[in-house]
Write a structure and sequence with these properties.
Layout (H helix, E strand, L loop, with lengths): L1 E4 L5 E4 L2 H17 L16 E5 L7 H8 L4 E6 L2 H14 L4 E5 L12 E6 L9 H11 E10 L5 H10 L3 E7 L2 E6 H4 L2
The structure holds S-adenosylmethionine (SAM).
């Protein structure tokens, strides 16, 4: 892992460039074998929605997300890795996705307004996150009170991921399917 100390003094941890490039190759092979974008079709994303792809990596999901939200919507693609942001920018420019906004995260808060997102998804990335409470609190700040969060356990035991989500005290799990948790804000979900 590589550490970057930002101007605000916050330390951001991310993969060395070579590891990120290798990961991108693996993800592109995965996408060639079985495109992942269709997974988003079950997240209730509609035209005009604001969605956040947290831990977007090289951007495997942005094409489908961009199509689903349409011209009136917006897709924030957030990552801590500068190479991820470069890749998303390149993809968005090549395909003319004017509704995709790449956001480099250098700690929290990220540059997205509070309570602005209808749907947040964080896929194959939760195992990377060190400050899980900070992360889950930030997702809670960004999501609309009645919005939906989809978070995959990633490469960690399901029980551990579930505990982290519940211990953060922001979320209730409304549905669990394989390694995917659908969550709602605690205030809203238990109302
Ligand atoms: C395995 S990739 C998954 C990419 C994409 N979600 C997918 O499933 O194709 C994990 C990504 O999460 C990013 N990441 C790790 N910790 C993060 C954090 N705290 N905030 C935002 N992105 C993070 C990494 O830089 C990496 O690009």
């Amino acid at each position: 892992m590589q550490l970057l100390r930002t101007l605000s003094g916050y330390e951001v941890e991310y993969l060395p460039n070579i590891a990120f490039r290798l990961m991108s190759v693996v993800l592109s092979m995965r996408d060639a074998l079985a495109p992942v974008g269709k997974r988003l079709d079950r997240f209730g994303i509609r035209k005009g929605c604001v969605v956040v792809d947290f831990g977007c990596g090289p951007g495997s999901y942005i094409e489908r997300a961009s199509q689903l939200v349409g011209d009136a919507g917006k897709v924030y693609a957030v990552d801590v890795h500068p190479l991820a942001i470069m890749s998303v920018k390149r993809r968005a420019e090549q395909k003319n996705f004017s509704n995709v906004v790449p956001v480099l995260s250098a700690g929290y808060p990220v540059n997205i307004a509070s309570q602005s997102a209808d749907v947040i998804y964080a896929l194959d990335m939760f195992h990377h996150v060190k400050d899980t409470d900070g992360f889950l609190t930030e997702l809670h700040r960004v999501l609309k009170p009645n919005g939906a969060l989809f978070i995959e356990s990633g490469h960690q035991p399901l029980d551990g991921a579930r505990k982290k989500i519940l211990n953060s005290d922001c979320w209730v799990i409304v549905k669990e399917e394989k390694n995917l948790f659908e969550c709602a804000s605690k205030e809203h979900g238990s109302a």
